[in-house]
N5-carboxyaminoimidazole ribonucleotide synthase
Amino acid sequence: GTTIGILGGGQLGRMLVLAGTNLGYRFVTLDPAPDSPCGQVSQQIRAAYDDEHAARKLAGRCEVITYEFENVDAGVAALLEQKSSVPQGSGLLYTTQHRLREKRAIEAAGVPVAPYREISSATDMVQAVAELGVPCVLKTAVGGYDGKGQAVIRQPEEATVAYEQLAASGTELVLEQFIRFRCEISVIVARSTNGEAKAFPPAENIHVNNILHTSIVPARVPDSVQEEARRLALAVAESMGAVGLLAVEMFVAEDGQLYVNELAPRPHNSGHYTMEGCATSQFEQHIRAICGLPLGSTKLLTPVVMVNVLGEHLEDVVRRFAQPDAEAERLDVVPKLHLYGKNEAKPGRKMGHINLLCQDAEQALEWIEQTNIWGDK
Ligand code: ATP
Ligand code: MG
Ligand code: MG
């Protein structure tokens, strides 16, 4: 059978391994951690992600290589493409590693992004804040996640301080107009090596402290907005020639207009609902896409709410799942727990998630409320 290599051994890799193993594939993962979530379910090469010797070893053992994060070292990506097959290609990584390149690629697909400016100096910054208006948000072009590497500017006077703070990181900066959104949604698209493409139903995403907390499906926006969101996400994937999964985060503005916020060329936290919610999970779909199998159905089987289990929630969650859950029955929700096999339950660390299958999202949200996993919202 075919062996698939994964750069990165976190939970996204683990869920790829679990889905792909069911399809008959074998896996080798590359990760420096002795107790990575993937280590329990696949063979593992223990080395740093930018270790070219280890990358060569991985390439030697696998017919197909993929990754579970976008900040893959360019040298390693080139080496893997040369020594093995990386169906997603290094171009997709190159584009999505950098917010400016990413925005240009989205615009090239004819898809709207929030008005933005490239910022290379304090003078640029003052001028751009005047042009875009406040509030606006300054972001490092490279390496940000969970809202790290960002500063919101609410008053023009804050421009210089924000610039100096983020310029210290040494990467390029981009200033975006702040979109007063009705909600945030995401669409996960899969595009296969033979060009077939399918979009999953949009998820409505709620963040707490800049970390994704809950995804609600179907998103609570009109059908026409959902259809438009899928159309835009497919247009971006098509235009970029993406292969594998592409997660497309969007803002739904007050007037219903959609703006793409950012992309991720991999399984996405907001797509975990597909594991029980859809006919095919995002993980199975990614494996299908990179291996050239026909894509699976993205049909939604039931309304579903996904909630992340962070380190600070773990104890309450484990206790709740160890007992009969009369509330779940009363609310007519079916909670499905997915833990990632991480040892240390640090606050803010993603330890697992729960997919709540339901008739009505409100009841799933009530179950979440009661289980004490709403953090300090
Ligand atoms: P992720 O963990 O999703 O990769 P990130 O650090 O890359 O996060 P973004 O997704 O760009 O950051 O921004 C984080 C959150 O900040 C968004 O989900 C949104 O809530 C808010 N935000 C970012 N940019 C804007 C904007 N231009 N207008 C309004 N809100 C914004
Ligand atoms: Mg991001
Ligand atoms: Mg984001």
Notes: The CA atoms of residues 138 and 175 lie 4 Å apart. The pocket of magnesium ion (ligand 2) is lined by residues 145, 262 (CB under 6 Å). DSSP finds 13 helices and 17 strands in the chain. The chain has three domains: 3-86, 115-177, 181-370.
